[in-house]
Design a protein that fits this description.
By secondary structure, the protein is mainly α. It contains 11 helices and 4 strands; from the N terminus they run αααββαβαααααβαα. The protein has a two-stranded antiparallel sheet with strand order 1-2. It has a two-stranded antiparallel sheet with strand order 3-4. This is Cytochrome c553.
Length: 221
């Protein structure tokens, strides 16, 4: 299974590279992104804010997330590859320039200049370590789970564990108009695990040191 996933990963990274080459002329502007984030801060700029769909969970931390991942995620919502009515509606309203500006802003927000890179993540329980090996998680997300091998992949260390659990389950969901994520790599990984095992992984990832933050908007005004 892992050999299949690695081959599939290589193919999809190649396709992402083609997309990036097409879009690389759109340069993000941090200051412009700060002025365009009114639709974002109502959820992502409130510490502890919880969404109620598809189930109750904290909205993801996006300050400090990789800009190319944010852009990739927004485009996936826009194309319907990620199914979430609210995020689809927001993404549909954004131009390529808007997405680039917001991605640049959130990558920079809360970042500490000169901060050392996170070290290799501490080992989990024997059960968690076995699950991490089975999913080959570090091969894409890095041994700190905060340095992905491709910039369109997310940092996941320290992300809200309840959000991670919901996101992982979404990769297993098919045939639902409102829930699901159409990513072949993550779909193949997530479907190897029971929901109980996905929760174990999510809880471990959420416990790790993180570069991700929730930065209230008032700090930028």
């Amino acid at each position: 299974m892992n050999k299949f996933l690695l081959s599939l990963s290589a193919a999809l990274v190649a396709s992402v590279t083609v997309f990036a080459a097409h879009a690389e002329g759109v340069q993000g502007d941090i200051k412009a992104g700060e002025k365009k984030n009114a639709m974002c801060i109502g959820c992502h700029g409130i510490v502890g804010y919880q969404a109620s769909f598809p189930e109750i969970h904290k909205v993801p931390k996006i300050s400090g997330q990789g800009g190319k991942y944010i852009a990739s995620a927004l485009n996936a919502y826009k194309k319907g590859e990620r199914k979430h009515p609210t995020m689809r509606g927001i993404a549909d309203s954004l131009s390529d320039q808007d997405i680039a500006d917001l991605a640049a802003f959130y990558e920079a927000s809360g970042a500490v200049q000169g901060a050392p890179a996170l070290e290799k993540a501490a080992a989990g329980s024997d059960k968690v370590n076995a699950l991490l090996t089975k999913g080959n998680c570090a091969s894409c997300h890095g041994d700190s789970f905060s340095k992905p091998i491709d910039p369109t992949y997310p940092k996941i260390a320290g992300q809200h564990s309840d959000y991670l659990f919901v996101a992982l389950k979404a990769y297993k969901t098919e045939g639902n108009a409102n829930i699901g994520r159409g990513n072949a790599i993550m779909g193949g990984v997530a479907k190897q695990f029971s929901n109980a095992e996905l929760k174990e992984l999510a809880n471990y990832m959420g416990s790790l040191p993180s570069e991700l933050k929730v930065v209230p908007q008032s700090r930028f005004r």
